[in-house]
Task: structure prediction
Amino acid sequence: MRDTLPSPVVDGVTFALPKGRILGAAARLLGRAGIDTRALVDSDDRRLLVELPDGNRVLLVKPVDVPTYVEHGVADVGIAGRDTLEEQGRDLYEPVDLGIGACRLAVAESRDRPARLHRGMTLRVATKYPRLARRHYHGRGIDPEIIELFGSVELGAITGLADQIVDLVESGETLRQNGLVEVETVMDVTSRLIVHPASLKLRHARIAALVDAVRTAVASGDARKATGT
Result:
């Protein structure tokens, strides 16, 4: 049974949504906010642009690319993780924490080769998040050598390429299966609704109505979790 509001709250809005693990949760949340996401949920995963029955449309892009489409005005709004937003540091409005895609950006290392951090030490860190990693270690008086990886970052610590890694962790099972241990949380991560400031100004009534509907949908979902319904 699909949760939707009885009538669409907006039309003519372009959404940039991340392909992958949170797309289903994002579609369900937008459905509760009155956006007809049936075509999105039922679409072939290889489609890149989905026209919705209510006059809105969705761009399906890599999570790291969502802020780019919103910043350049190709999409009016998007859904992106806090990790991506803080790593890229773009000038975007983040009106709602959606509470979906919860995980954490964490430091991990080999169980057999603990780094034993101290100020001024030489440390090699493998990560997809060079900006956030540097900020984290600089706060501890360490200027790390950052090794950027775009595949399985865990392999950096497994092979000894890096002393530590900074990567997203959900359950921690991948770390455990590969002999790694999580030693510190850099930040907790959830997905946010993002809007370009110019879109909010130029299409204020439409975008504000959408933001209010999404905020209500998030609150109603939280209430149902709290009551167990």
Q: What stands out?
A: Residues 1-6 have pLDDT under 50 and may be disordered. The chain has two domains: 14-101+190-227, 103-188. The two ends are 14 Å apart (CA to CA).
